[in-house]
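Notes, p. 3: input format for complexes.
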Amino acid sequence: MAMKVALLGCGVVGSQVVRLIEEQSEELAARIGTPIEVGGIAVRRIDRARGVSPELLTTDAVALATRPDIDVVVEVIGGIEPARSLILAAIGAGKSVVTANKALLAEDGQTLHAAAREAGVDLYYEASVAGAIPLLRPLRDSLAGDRVNRVLGIVNGTTNYILDRMDSLGAGFTESLEEAQALGYAEADPTADVEGFDAAAKAAILARLAFHTQRVTAADVHREGITGVTAADIASARAMGCVVKLLAICQRSEDDKSVGVRVHPVMLPVDHPLAGVKEAYNAVFVEAESAGRLMFYGAGAGGTPTASAVLGDVVAVARNRRAGTSVAEGGHDTGLGVHDMGDTITSYHVALDVADRPGVLSKVAEIFARHQVSIKNVRQEGRGDDAQLVLVSHPAPDAALSRTVEDLRVHDMVREVASVMRVETFAD
Ligand SMILES: NC(=O)C1=CN([C@@H]2O[C@H](COP(=O)(O)OP(=O)(O)OC[C@H]3O[C@@H](n4cnc5c(N)ncnc54)[C@H](O)[C@@H]3O)[C@@H](O)[C@H]2O)C=CC1
Ligand SMILES: N[C@@H](CC=O)C(=O)O
Ligand code: NA
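Output follows (428 residues plus sodium ion):
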């Protein structure tokens, strides 16, 4: 008997899932040993759905998600509600669930996992982080015998696309965002991308899996987006041999009592492996005690690549069902919580427009010293009224670095703090 899939949502990702199931039906059946077919598709407006058989469409998502003949529910609506209620209804009706919904998993993954454990069904979500890249399964399964210390990478395709266009073509922010939207990379509300909410949700999911903790939610993640990144920042990065990237960084603390989880723009030296990640591609480093440094790279956004990850999960569910098993998650909880961003050790790049007067450099150095921040290098550009001092700090607590910048901003010899950004090197 065929395994029946219900699709909730038929937008950029959902329409590609339907297409791939239909186009690859014979191959999938041979691979799994059971045919897979689409049993129904819940949409908001039937007259708007394109390229799918009209008889499969319904506006009653609850009825579809709980229909007795449905085996797997694929949720690709996005957002918190009604996605959460629909997933819980499906699980309650004994369906396994595949979702690409990072916002929901990062906000309330614990409830969903608990419900799936209780019902003895699968809950898979590979598409939710870094699109097509197999990343969550390696973290959960392949690295189950290792101890992960750090996960760091580019996990938002839209912002990487925008920053890449701004850097390599000198393109504007708004036009680059519009292109990313037209290519199907952006969230329904692109604020989620450009303000870092999407990357923060992904960082929370990564931290939970990497450090086996249920305590991390999107709200715990320190988040800065790219709307404050200016052409001056990009030029300043270039002058230093760097590019600007939005990174998600999840790191175990030295005392092993907490984790740091943050999303913010950084300057990366051009020889850093993440510096060469272009367009909407994603790349993630996982650093584990025994395995060492692993890098995962590929398409992080877009309908077809994301549908590939969704389909991989559907196949995993089908295989589990044939084997009469389910893969529960979240039973073991280290309880590690997130520490304050101020306690995180980072390095800053600071560009200052200063009065070109004797003693400026020593005054600036004194402010750094006041906060016990040591300066790694200093460069002066220009002369006279246009003098600019560019400083890079050694690693220091983020709170000390931000207090240093606050003091620089109000000093009378500093006309303007032209650019402030954290710096990440490969050795960090
Ligand atoms: N587009 C991408 O590159 C990626 C998207 N995702 C995630 O996949 C999910 C879907 O994203 P997209 O397909 O890009 O979004 P989309 O906005 O293109 O599609 C969502 C669809 O759900 C429909 N919908 C909304 N409420 C509904 C309801 N109550 N019942 C039935 N349908 C409803 C909308 O009309 C829309 O057609 C989101 O969780 C997103 O974060 C994950 C990875 C990559
Ligand atoms: N909007 C997201 C889509 C994939 O998760 C992105 O741009 O990465
Ligand atoms: Na993925």
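The pocket of LTNE7NMQ (ligand 2) is lined by residues 131, 156-158, 185-187, 193, 198, 300-301 (CB under 6 Å).
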